[in-house]
Amino acid sequence: IRRWSNIPFITVPLSRAHGKSFAHRSELKHAKRIVVKLGSAVVTRGDECGLALGRLASIVEQVSMLQNQGREMMIVTSGAVAFGKQRLRHEILLSQSVRQALHSGQSQLKDMAIPVLEARACAAAGQSGLMALYEAMFTQYSICAAQILVTNLDFHDEQKRRNLNGTLHELLRMNIVPIINTNDAVVPPPEPNSDLQGVNVISVKDNDSLAARLAVEMKTDLLIVLSDVEGLFDSPPGSDDAKLIDIFYPGDQQSVTFGTKSRVGMGGMEAKVKAALWALQGGTSVVIANGTHPKISGHVITDIVEGKKVGTFFSEVKPAGPTVEQQGEMARAGGRTLAALQPEQRAEIIYRLADLLTDQRDEILLANKKDLEEAENKGRLALPLLKRLSLSTSKLNSLAIGLRQIAASSQDSVGRVIRRTRIAKDLDLEQVTVPIGVLLVIFESRPDCLPQVSALAIASGNGLLLKGGKEAAHSNQILHHLTQEALSIHGVKDAVQLVNTREEVEDLCRLDKLIDLIIPRGSSQLVRNIQKAAKGIPVMGHSEGICHVYVDTDASVEKVTRIIRDSKCEYPAACNALETLLIHRDLLRTPLFDQIIDMLRVEQVKIHAGPRFASYLTFSPSEVKSLRTEYGDLECCIEVVDSVQEAVEHIHKYGSSHTDVIITENEKTAEFFLQHVDSACVFWNASTRFSDGYRFGLGAEVGISTSRIHARGPVGIEGLLTTKWLLRGDNHVVSDFSEQGTMKYLHESLPLPQRNTN
């Protein structure tokens, strides 16, 4: 805890030797000294007369939050000219209206013209008001601000430089936020572009160059430049092919075309890039981002400091491999080539991958052993996750069998005709299956997921981006290498990409122009986070697996304990494991009920009592905190219901629409349950654990979906396909089918082509 003026605030551990900029966005959270440069377009309103008070208040709030974390914040601000222009216009209008009212009468007021205002005069009139506004806003967060006006001479005169440096250091030491601006009241007009020629030469002709000079002079860790564009684009923003550059490296400026400067202010994007590169050479990291967008401006500064993918990050360290954006484009191009292959060729790739899993077994297990040893040494994984991380010979053999099933069943998956209609004479319509596009599959601690999902993507002709957990890095690397080796036999190696960059999951979920579907494989928390972070990209999956087993009055004694034991104890961490056991009230205090309880005790299952069940007991187990709980361990809830109807209602209220089971010998009761429970999988006298793509005969699954659109339940090849319509005509036009036309609609259903069932 640090204190200033008796006000405590939390500090974060921040320290690094200055002299080298951060290499990756993820390191920005370690930045201690930060300069935030506010461009004129950020600070001023659209009419250029007055300040954007809402944006300014949000920026002050973010800067205050970071300052109160123990960081040293400085602001380089524009806005004095705009604020002064507003004040001077008001004064001129007021004085003109008084004079004209006295000499010419009211009828002349409408003819008043406001003279062109000189910028230096506007700056002189606006500086004090702008600073007063900053002071009032920072006061709300118990932070003091101080104004510093500088000119180019202050940096070229050695004594003035030392004075400025000393003043800024003293202000930072006292937890004061310096607010710096060029002294536009006395600054000369800008000269032609003669600065920024080297590390030791930079003149202050606008606030971009001022911010860069100040950042290097003060050995700042991070310079954030806020403007009215999202960042740096590879061509002028707004042009058809313009793409936001995520990371910009020195030397890349030759491939960039610069557009015009912003609507207000002295510097355009070219000036910002030059200033940013100068600061980068001086050891300061730089991010250029949008400070005006209403959806992101409220957290743009804190997002940048947290390492989120916002704007353009300037880095001197170029990664060895492609960026995730490039990988997405490669996956799309590779996926389209993959979809154009013959079905036999796609199947051949999957058969080859299955063979490689067994042929290269020793190398795979060696890589997996490294992951297990690292995870155990760091102690970061719980026992259930370690089990998921572990590969074995039997697991690899099962994987190979599943892949061969996928290959055998994929012969007519892509391009299958599912509907044929004769619209009119010589005008035939077909609906055919096609790949979805590019899939992003994010998985935790499950290296066996990689070949399964890859095989399903190959069979369905989809491009694939894979993001695995770092705890399985070695295993994922070799499995991806084998996948690409199999793809290479038909020249589609790029169709499956493994994301190895430091991309955060939240950043990946924003790539809506590259990704068509996100499939999370992992904990319920992971799925919820992805569903929350996905912006414009559909997410296939389930956030919870709250599976129920209902034991009816007509249940078989022999079947009950077997099904419950398998559902709960066979693999309690699975999403299809039993979490809530519903017991018909008439079964309480019967031998069958006692057998169930005894079996759960023998299996060391911790029992939580539902409210109704607890009311029947004198000494009950711990009462459940929520009936909507996924335990993921040897724990379950027991609750009592009066009928199958009440069991269905309980499932609909507290379940997650995943998998629900009835145990009964009464066929009528069973059919009622099967028809009325609205879940992805509903079973009669079978374990919940059958809810699995491999056990369903799908070969494997990309996950289990509880959504009601597209795929539901275990998702295999069919769930990774969509459709398109093919219309074949012969000089047909819609006007021929009007009342005066010569043609009529037939809409005849045509037989489908014979499916290949081999």
Please tell me what the overall shape is: globular
Number of strands: 26
List the total number of helices: 23
The radius of gyration over CA amounts to 33 Å
CATH architecture of the largest domain: 3-Layer(aba) Sandwich
Write the CATH homologous superfamily of the largest domain.
Acetylglutamate kinase-like
CATH topology assignment of the largest domain: Carbamate kinase
Summarize model confidence as the mean pLDDT. Answer: 86
The biggest sheet, with number of strands, parallel, antiparallel or mixed sense and barrel status, is:
8 strands, mixed
Q: Please write the CATH class name of the largest domain.
A: Alpha Beta
What percentage of the residues does DSSP assign to strands (E)? 15-25%
Spatial strand arrangement across the major sheet: 5-6-4-3-7-9-10-8
Weakly predicted, low-confidence segments: 1-16, 190-204, 262-267
Report the end-to-end length measured between terminal Cα atoms.
71 Å
Describe the structure.
With 758 residues, the chain is of the alpha/beta class. The protein folds into three domains: 25-93 and 117-187 and 206-314, Acetylglutamate kinase-like (Carbamate kinase); 324-416 and 432-533, 3-Layer(aba) Sandwich (Aldehyde Dehydrogenase, Chain A, domain 1), CATH 3.40.605; 548-701, Aldehyde Dehydrogenase, Chain A, domain 2. The protein contains 23 helices and 26 strands. An eight-stranded mixed β-sheet has the order 5-6-4-3-7-9-10-8, sandwiched between helices. It has a six-stranded parallel β-sheet with strand order 19-20-18-17-21-22, with helices on both faces. It has a four-stranded antiparallel β-sheet with strand order 25-12-11-26, with no helix packed on it. α12 runs antiparallel to α16 (473-487) and α14 (393-409) runs parallel beside α15. The chain is globular and about 100 Å long. The model is unreliable at 1-16, 190-204 and 262-267 (pLDDT under 50). Its EC number is 1.2.1.41, 2.7.2.11. Residues 324-588 form the Aldehyde dehydrogenase domain.
